[in-house]
Protein backbone atom coordinates (compact mmCIF):
# COMPACT_ATOMS: atom_id res chain seq x y z
CA UNK A 1 0.00 0.00 0.00
CA UNK A 2 1.30 3.44 -0.93
CA UNK A 3 2.13 5.64 2.05
CA UNK A 4 0.06 8.81 2.27
CA UNK A 5 0.20 11.52 4.94
CA UNK A 6 -3.47 12.23 4.32
CA UNK A 7 -4.32 8.74 5.61
CA UNK A 8 -2.26 9.36 8.73
CA UNK A 9 -4.21 12.55 9.44
CA UNK A 10 -7.50 10.69 9.14
CA UNK A 11 -6.19 7.83 11.29
CA UNK A 12 -5.32 10.53 13.80
CA UNK A 13 -9.04 11.08 14.41
CA UNK A 14 -9.01 7.78 16.30
CA UNK A 15 -6.42 9.25 18.67
CA UNK A 16 -8.35 12.54 18.68
CA UNK A 17 -11.42 10.78 20.10
CA UNK A 18 -9.48 8.67 22.58
CA UNK A 19 -7.63 11.74 23.89
CA UNK A 20 -10.90 13.60 24.50
CA UNK A 21 -12.13 10.74 26.67
CA UNK A 22 -8.95 10.39 28.73
CA UNK A 23 -8.48 14.14 29.21
CA UNK A 24 -12.00 14.52 30.62
CA UNK A 25 -11.72 11.31 32.63
CA UNK A 26 -8.45 12.29 34.32
CA UNK A 27 -9.53 15.88 34.90
CA UNK A 28 -12.88 15.25 36.60
CA UNK A 29 -13.15 11.69 37.92
CA UNK A 30 -10.72 12.35 40.84
CA UNK A 31 -12.85 15.37 41.83
CA UNK A 32 -16.03 13.26 41.72
CA UNK A 33 -14.43 10.56 43.88
CA UNK A 34 -13.27 13.07 46.50
CA UNK A 35 -16.27 15.44 46.51
CA UNK A 36 -19.21 13.07 45.98
CA UNK A 37 -17.92 9.90 47.63
CA UNK A 38 -15.44 11.51 50.09
CA UNK A 39 -12.58 9.14 49.28
CA UNK A 40 -8.98 9.77 50.31
CA UNK A 41 -6.35 10.73 47.78
CA UNK A 42 -4.68 7.32 48.10
CA UNK A 43 -7.94 5.46 47.41
CA UNK A 44 -8.70 7.87 44.58
CA UNK A 45 -5.28 7.08 43.15
CA UNK A 46 -5.97 3.35 43.28
CA UNK A 47 -9.29 3.79 41.49
CA UNK A 48 -7.62 5.89 38.82
CA UNK A 49 -5.39 2.91 38.00
CA UNK A 50 -8.27 0.79 36.69
CA UNK A 51 -7.61 1.81 33.10
CA UNK A 52 -3.94 1.08 33.54
CA UNK A 53 -4.66 -2.33 35.09
CA UNK A 54 -6.74 -3.27 32.06
CA UNK A 55 -3.97 -1.95 29.83
CA UNK A 56 -1.26 -4.03 31.51
CA UNK A 57 -3.40 -7.18 31.43
CA UNK A 58 -5.08 -6.80 28.04
CA UNK A 59 -3.06 -4.62 25.68
CA UNK A 60 -0.27 -7.13 24.94
CA UNK A 61 -2.93 -9.80 24.37
CA UNK A 62 -5.09 -7.54 22.21
CA UNK A 63 -2.10 -6.32 20.22
CA UNK A 64 -1.15 -9.89 19.38
CA UNK A 65 -4.80 -10.85 18.81
CA UNK A 66 -5.23 -8.08 16.26
CA UNK A 67 -1.93 -9.15 14.62
CA UNK A 68 -3.46 -12.58 13.98
CA UNK A 69 -6.95 -11.43 13.05
CA UNK A 70 -7.98 -11.53 9.38
CA UNK A 71 -11.39 -10.23 8.27
CA UNK A 72 -12.92 -8.66 5.21
CA UNK A 73 -12.30 -5.19 6.68
CA UNK A 74 -8.85 -5.93 8.09
CA UNK A 75 -7.19 -6.92 11.36
CA UNK A 76 -7.53 -3.70 13.44
CA UNK A 77 -11.00 -2.40 12.52
CA UNK A 78 -13.12 -5.15 14.15
CA UNK A 79 -11.81 -4.12 17.56
CA UNK A 80 -12.53 -0.45 16.88
CA UNK A 81 -16.10 -1.29 15.85
CA UNK A 82 -16.67 -3.33 19.00
CA UNK A 83 -14.86 -1.17 21.55
CA UNK A 84 -15.56 2.43 20.55
CA UNK A 85 -19.40 2.43 20.67
CA UNK A 86 -19.46 0.47 23.93
CA UNK A 87 -16.88 2.75 25.59
CA UNK A 88 -18.76 5.86 24.41
CA UNK A 89 -21.98 4.61 25.97
CA UNK A 90 -20.35 3.85 29.31
CA UNK A 91 -18.56 7.22 29.35
CA UNK A 92 -21.84 9.06 28.77
CA UNK A 93 -23.39 7.16 31.70
CA UNK A 94 -20.71 8.28 34.22
CA UNK A 95 -22.51 11.54 35.27
CA UNK A 96 -25.79 9.62 35.46
CA UNK A 97 -24.18 7.16 37.86
CA UNK A 98 -22.82 10.08 39.92
CA UNK A 99 -26.27 11.59 40.42
CA UNK A 100 -27.41 8.40 42.17
CA UNK A 101 -24.54 8.79 44.68
CA UNK A 102 -24.01 5.03 44.64
CA UNK A 103 -20.32 4.17 44.69
CA UNK A 104 -21.06 0.63 43.45
CA UNK A 105 -22.98 1.94 40.41
CA UNK A 106 -20.34 4.58 39.72
CA UNK A 107 -17.51 2.03 39.94
CA UNK A 108 -19.34 -0.45 37.72
CA UNK A 109 -19.80 2.20 35.05
CA UNK A 110 -16.16 3.31 34.97
CA UNK A 111 -14.89 -0.29 35.09
CA UNK A 112 -16.92 -1.19 32.00
CA UNK A 113 -15.88 2.01 30.26
CA UNK A 114 -12.22 1.24 30.93
CA UNK A 115 -12.58 -2.33 29.68
CA UNK A 116 -14.08 -1.25 26.37
CA UNK A 117 -11.45 1.47 25.93
CA UNK A 118 -8.73 -1.17 26.40
CA UNK A 119 -10.42 -3.37 23.82
CA UNK A 120 -9.59 -1.10 20.90
CA UNK A 121 -6.70 1.10 22.08
CA UNK A 122 -3.82 -1.22 21.13
CA UNK A 123 -5.26 -2.05 17.67
CA UNK A 124 -5.69 1.68 16.95
CA UNK A 125 -2.08 2.38 17.94
CA UNK A 126 -0.76 -0.57 15.89
CA UNK A 127 -2.72 0.69 12.86
CA UNK A 128 -0.16 3.50 12.30
CA UNK A 129 2.97 1.35 11.75
CA UNK A 130 0.82 -0.99 9.61
CA UNK A 131 0.49 1.73 6.97
CA UNK A 132 3.77 3.61 7.59
CA UNK A 133 7.34 2.63 6.55
CA UNK A 134 10.06 2.80 9.22
CA UNK A 135 11.69 5.99 7.95
CA UNK A 136 8.37 7.87 8.18
CA UNK A 137 7.21 6.70 11.61
CA UNK A 138 8.49 9.61 13.70
CA UNK A 139 6.81 12.02 11.30
CA UNK A 140 3.61 9.96 11.23
CA UNK A 141 3.61 9.64 15.02
CA UNK A 142 3.97 13.42 15.18
CA UNK A 143 0.77 13.75 13.16
CA UNK A 144 -0.98 11.16 15.33
CA UNK A 145 0.06 12.99 18.48
CA UNK A 146 -0.97 16.32 16.96
CA UNK A 147 -4.47 14.92 16.56
CA UNK A 148 -4.38 13.47 20.07
CA UNK A 149 -3.26 16.83 21.42
CA UNK A 150 -6.09 18.52 19.52
CA UNK A 151 -8.54 16.16 21.20
CA UNK A 152 -7.15 16.87 24.67
CA UNK A 153 -7.18 20.59 23.89
CA UNK A 154 -10.84 20.45 22.93
CA UNK A 155 -11.60 18.50 26.10
CA UNK A 156 -9.83 20.95 28.42
CA UNK A 157 -10.89 24.22 26.79
CA UNK A 158 -14.36 23.24 25.60
CA UNK A 159 -14.85 21.06 28.66
CA UNK A 160 -14.43 24.05 30.98
CA UNK A 161 -17.30 25.93 29.36
CA UNK A 162 -19.51 22.85 29.31
CA UNK A 163 -18.60 21.83 32.87
CA UNK A 164 -19.45 25.30 34.17
CA UNK A 165 -22.92 24.92 32.63
CA UNK A 166 -23.50 21.33 33.79
CA UNK A 167 -20.92 18.79 34.90
CA UNK A 168 -22.57 16.10 32.72
CA UNK A 169 -22.24 17.99 29.43
CA UNK A 170 -18.52 17.27 28.83
CA UNK A 171 -19.19 13.54 29.19
CA UNK A 172 -22.05 13.54 26.67
CA UNK A 173 -20.02 15.66 24.27
CA UNK A 174 -16.86 13.56 24.64
CA UNK A 175 -18.71 10.28 24.09
CA UNK A 176 -20.33 11.55 20.88
CA UNK A 177 -17.09 12.95 19.44
CA UNK A 178 -15.08 9.83 20.23
CA UNK A 179 -17.67 7.60 18.56
CA UNK A 180 -17.89 9.74 15.41
CA UNK A 181 -14.09 10.05 15.14
CA UNK A 182 -13.51 6.30 15.24
CA UNK A 183 -16.32 5.61 12.79
CA UNK A 184 -14.54 8.00 10.40
CA UNK A 185 -11.33 5.97 10.75
CA UNK A 186 -13.14 2.72 9.98
CA UNK A 187 -14.90 4.16 6.94
CA UNK A 188 -12.01 6.08 5.35
CA UNK A 189 -8.64 4.49 6.21
CA UNK A 190 -8.02 1.15 4.42
CA UNK A 191 -5.92 -1.54 5.99
CA UNK A 192 -3.15 -3.22 3.93
CA UNK A 193 -4.66 -5.66 1.46
CA UNK A 194 -2.82 -8.67 2.88
CA UNK A 195 -4.81 -8.32 6.11
CA UNK A 196 -8.17 -8.12 4.36
CA UNK A 197 -9.27 -11.68 3.61
CA UNK A 198 -12.85 -11.60 2.25
CA UNK A 199 -15.10 -14.53 2.92
CA UNK A 200 -12.75 -16.37 5.29
CA UNK A 201 -14.51 -17.88 8.29
CA UNK A 202 -12.94 -17.29 11.67
CA UNK A 203 -13.00 -19.73 14.56
CA UNK A 204 -13.19 -17.35 17.51
CA UNK A 205 -12.28 -20.09 19.99
CA UNK A 206 -9.27 -21.17 17.96
CA UNK A 207 -8.18 -17.57 17.41
CA UNK A 208 -8.41 -16.72 21.12
CA UNK A 209 -6.58 -19.91 22.09
CA UNK A 210 -3.77 -19.32 19.60
CA UNK A 211 -3.53 -15.65 20.49
CA UNK A 212 -3.49 -16.31 24.22
CA UNK A 213 -0.62 -18.75 23.75
CA UNK A 214 1.16 -16.41 21.33
CA UNK A 215 0.59 -13.11 23.12
CA UNK A 216 1.64 -14.16 26.60
CA UNK A 217 4.36 -16.38 25.19
CA UNK A 218 5.50 -13.49 23.02
CA UNK A 219 5.29 -11.08 25.95
CA UNK A 220 7.36 -13.49 28.04
CA UNK A 221 9.85 -13.87 25.19
CA UNK A 222 9.99 -10.12 24.61
CA UNK A 223 10.43 -9.40 28.31
CA UNK A 224 13.19 -12.00 28.40
CA UNK A 225 14.87 -10.20 25.51
CA UNK A 226 14.46 -6.91 27.37
CA UNK A 227 16.15 -8.09 30.55
CA UNK A 228 18.68 -10.65 29.29
CA UNK A 229 19.90 -9.15 26.02
CA UNK A 230 23.56 -8.18 25.99
CA UNK A 231 22.62 -4.93 24.24
CA UNK A 232 20.54 -2.89 26.72
CA UNK A 233 18.93 -0.25 24.48
CA UNK A 234 15.46 -1.79 24.62
CA UNK A 235 15.63 -2.13 28.41
CA UNK A 236 16.85 1.46 28.75
CA UNK A 237 14.16 3.01 26.56
CA UNK A 238 11.38 1.00 28.21
CA UNK A 239 12.69 1.94 31.66
CA UNK A 240 12.74 5.60 30.59
CA UNK A 241 9.15 5.26 29.30
CA UNK A 242 8.14 3.71 32.62
CA UNK A 243 9.73 6.56 34.59
CA UNK A 244 8.41 9.49 32.58
CA UNK A 245 4.89 8.08 32.56
CA UNK A 246 4.98 7.82 36.34
CA UNK A 247 5.78 11.53 36.34
CA UNK A 248 3.23 12.53 33.72
CA UNK A 249 0.35 10.40 34.97
CA UNK A 250 0.79 11.74 38.51
CA UNK A 251 0.40 15.26 37.15
CA UNK A 252 -2.49 14.39 34.88
CA UNK A 253 -4.37 12.60 37.66
CA UNK A 254 -3.91 15.10 40.46
CA UNK A 255 -3.28 18.51 38.91
CA UNK A 256 -6.93 19.59 38.94
CA UNK A 257 -7.07 18.48 42.60
CA UNK A 258 -3.83 20.43 43.24
CA UNK A 259 -5.41 23.47 41.61
CA UNK A 260 -8.60 23.22 43.67
CA UNK A 261 -7.33 22.13 47.07
CA UNK A 262 -3.85 23.75 47.12
CA UNK A 263 -3.97 26.75 44.81
CA UNK A 264 -7.59 27.46 45.76
CA UNK A 265 -9.08 27.79 42.27
CA UNK A 266 -11.92 26.01 40.49
CA UNK A 267 -11.25 22.57 39.04
CA UNK A 268 -12.42 23.73 35.61
CA UNK A 269 -9.71 26.43 35.68
CA UNK A 270 -7.14 23.79 36.61
CA UNK A 271 -8.32 21.70 33.66
CA UNK A 272 -8.03 24.77 31.43
CA UNK A 273 -4.44 25.21 32.58
CA UNK A 274 -3.74 21.63 31.53
CA UNK A 275 -5.36 22.57 28.23
CA UNK A 276 -2.54 25.02 27.58
CA UNK A 277 -0.11 22.12 27.94
CA UNK A 278 -2.18 20.18 25.40
CA UNK A 279 -2.32 23.19 23.06
CA UNK A 280 1.46 23.41 23.01
CA UNK A 281 1.78 19.64 22.64
CA UNK A 282 -0.62 19.73 19.69
CA UNK A 283 1.16 22.60 17.94
CA UNK A 284 4.60 21.04 18.43
CA UNK A 285 3.75 17.37 17.81
CA UNK A 286 4.39 17.43 14.07
CA UNK A 287 7.60 19.51 14.33
CA UNK A 288 8.78 17.16 17.11
CA UNK A 289 8.43 14.21 14.76
CA UNK A 290 10.47 15.91 12.05
CA UNK A 291 13.07 17.04 14.59
CA UNK A 292 13.38 13.43 15.76
CA UNK A 293 13.75 12.28 12.17
CA UNK A 294 16.38 14.90 11.41
CA UNK A 295 18.52 15.02 14.55
CA UNK A 296 17.83 11.61 16.08
CA UNK A 297 15.12 10.35 18.40
CA UNK A 298 17.35 9.87 21.46
CA UNK A 299 18.73 13.39 21.30
CA UNK A 300 15.28 14.84 20.77
CA UNK A 301 13.77 12.90 23.68
CA UNK A 302 16.64 13.92 25.99
CA UNK A 303 16.22 17.58 25.10
CA UNK A 304 12.49 17.30 25.72
CA UNK A 305 13.10 15.81 29.16
CA UNK A 306 15.49 18.64 30.06
CA UNK A 307 12.83 21.19 29.05
CA UNK A 308 10.10 19.47 31.09
CA UNK A 309 12.36 19.17 34.17
CA UNK A 310 13.10 22.90 34.04
CA UNK A 311 9.41 23.72 33.69
CA UNK A 312 8.40 21.51 36.61
CA UNK A 313 10.95 23.17 38.89
CA UNK A 314 9.80 26.64 37.82
CA UNK A 315 6.12 25.73 38.33
CA UNK A 316 6.88 24.45 41.83
CA UNK A 317 8.55 27.73 42.75
CA UNK A 318 5.60 29.71 41.38
CA UNK A 319 3.08 27.61 43.33
CA UNK A 320 5.06 27.96 46.55
CA UNK A 321 5.69 31.68 46.06
CA UNK A 322 2.13 32.94 45.89
CA UNK A 323 -1.42 31.67 45.45
CA UNK A 324 -3.94 32.92 42.86
CA UNK A 325 -6.33 35.57 44.13
CA UNK A 326 -9.16 34.20 41.96
CA UNK A 327 -10.01 31.49 39.43
CA UNK A 328 -9.87 34.04 36.62
CA UNK A 329 -7.66 33.14 33.69
CA UNK A 330 -6.20 36.66 33.90
CA UNK A 331 -4.88 36.13 37.44
CA UNK A 332 -1.06 36.58 37.34
CA UNK A 333 -0.30 33.23 38.98
CA UNK A 334 -2.70 31.36 36.69
CA UNK A 335 -1.20 33.11 33.67
CA UNK A 336 2.32 32.20 34.80
CA UNK A 337 1.35 28.54 35.14
CA UNK A 338 -0.18 28.62 31.66
CA UNK A 339 2.97 30.17 30.19
CA UNK A 340 5.16 27.52 31.79
CA UNK A 341 2.85 24.72 30.69
CA UNK A 342 2.94 26.02 27.12
CA UNK A 343 6.72 25.52 27.06
CA UNK A 344 6.37 22.20 28.90
CA UNK A 345 4.01 20.90 26.23
CA UNK A 346 6.75 21.42 23.63
CA UNK A 347 9.14 19.28 25.66
CA UNK A 348 6.50 16.59 26.19
CA UNK A 349 5.86 16.46 22.43
CA UNK A 350 9.56 15.85 21.80
CA UNK A 351 9.46 12.98 24.29
CA UNK A 352 6.17 11.33 23.45
CA UNK A 353 6.22 11.59 19.67
CA UNK A 354 9.58 9.86 19.27
CA UNK A 355 9.32 7.08 21.86
CA UNK A 356 6.91 4.64 20.21
CA UNK A 357 8.83 4.69 16.89
CA UNK A 358 12.01 3.84 18.83
CA UNK A 359 10.38 0.75 20.28
CA UNK A 360 8.70 -0.55 17.12
CA UNK A 361 11.89 0.00 15.11
CA UNK A 362 13.64 -2.50 17.39
CA UNK A 363 11.55 -5.39 16.01
CA UNK A 364 10.27 -6.99 12.79
CA UNK A 365 7.14 -6.15 10.80
CA UNK A 366 5.45 -9.38 11.97
CA UNK A 367 5.70 -8.34 15.63
CA UNK A 368 4.61 -4.70 15.40
CA UNK A 369 1.43 -5.32 17.38
CA UNK A 370 3.30 -7.31 20.00
CA UNK A 371 5.93 -4.60 20.45
CA UNK A 372 3.20 -1.95 20.51
CA UNK A 373 1.71 -3.99 23.34
CA UNK A 374 5.16 -4.14 24.99
CA UNK A 375 5.41 -0.35 24.81
CA UNK A 376 2.00 -0.06 26.42
CA UNK A 377 2.85 -2.71 29.00
CA UNK A 378 5.60 -0.47 30.40
CA UNK A 379 3.75 2.82 29.98
CA UNK A 380 0.57 1.46 31.56
CA UNK A 381 2.51 -0.32 34.28
CA UNK A 382 3.87 3.11 35.16
CA UNK A 383 0.36 4.54 35.14
CA UNK A 384 -0.68 1.68 37.40
CA UNK A 385 1.96 2.66 39.95
CA UNK A 386 1.74 6.44 39.68
CA UNK A 387 -1.73 7.45 41.02
CA UNK A 388 -1.68 5.48 44.31
CA UNK A 389 2.01 6.21 44.83
CA UNK A 390 1.53 9.96 44.27
CA UNK A 391 -1.76 9.87 46.21
CA UNK A 392 0.01 8.41 49.23
CA UNK A 393 2.55 11.25 49.14
CA UNK A 394 -0.27 13.76 48.91
CA UNK A 395 -2.10 12.19 51.86
CA UNK A 396 1.02 12.20 54.03
CA UNK A 397 2.76 15.43 53.05
CA UNK A 398 0.19 17.41 51.05
CA UNK A 399 -0.28 18.68 47.53
CA UNK A 400 3.00 20.61 47.67
CA UNK A 401 4.79 17.31 46.88
CA UNK A 402 3.07 16.82 43.51
CA UNK A 403 5.44 18.81 41.28
CA UNK A 404 8.70 17.69 43.00
CA UNK A 405 7.46 14.09 42.81
CA UNK A 406 6.99 14.38 39.04
CA UNK A 407 10.30 16.19 38.57
CA UNK A 408 12.26 13.39 40.24
CA UNK A 409 10.92 10.77 37.85
CA UNK A 410 11.52 12.96 34.79
CA UNK A 411 15.17 13.26 35.92
CA UNK A 412 15.50 9.49 36.30
CA UNK A 413 14.01 9.02 32.81
CA UNK A 414 16.56 11.42 31.33
CA UNK A 415 19.36 9.37 32.90
CA UNK A 416 17.96 6.10 31.53
CA UNK A 417 17.77 7.54 27.99
CA UNK A 418 21.55 7.99 27.94
CA UNK A 419 21.95 4.19 27.69
CA UNK A 420 19.84 3.87 24.52
CA UNK A 421 21.86 3.06 21.39
CA UNK A 422 19.23 1.72 18.97
CA UNK A 423 15.84 2.80 17.62
CA UNK A 424 16.99 5.72 15.49
CA UNK A 425 16.54 5.78 11.73
CA UNK A 426 19.32 4.37 9.56
CA UNK A 427 19.44 6.61 6.49
CA UNK A 428 21.37 7.03 3.31
CA UNK A 429 23.02 10.38 2.74
CA UNK A 430 21.05 12.71 0.53
CA UNK A 431 17.59 11.85 1.87
CA UNK A 432 16.82 15.36 3.07
CA UNK A 433 13.68 15.56 0.94
CA UNK A 434 12.22 12.62 2.89
CA UNK A 435 11.57 15.01 5.76
CA UNK A 436 9.18 17.08 3.64
CA UNK A 437 5.67 15.59 3.71
CA UNK A 438 3.84 14.88 0.45
CA UNK A 439 0.40 16.13 1.39
CA UNK A 440 -1.59 13.99 -1.03
TrEMBL record:
Keywords: Membrane, Transmembrane, Transmembrane helix
Domain named Major facilitator superfamily (MFS) profile: residues: 7-424
GO molecular function: transmembrane transporter activity
Coiled coil: none
Keyword flag Ribonucleoprotein: no
Transmembrane segments: 7-25, 45-66, 78-97, 103-120, 140-159, 171-190, 233-251, 271-293, 300-318, 333-353, 374-396, 402-420
Pfam families from the UniProt entry: MFS_1
PROSITE patterns: MFS
PANTHER family on file: MAJOR FACILITATOR SUPERFAMILY (MFS) PROFILE DOMAIN-CONTAINING PROTEIN, PTHR23528
Protein name (database record): SLC45 family MFS transporter
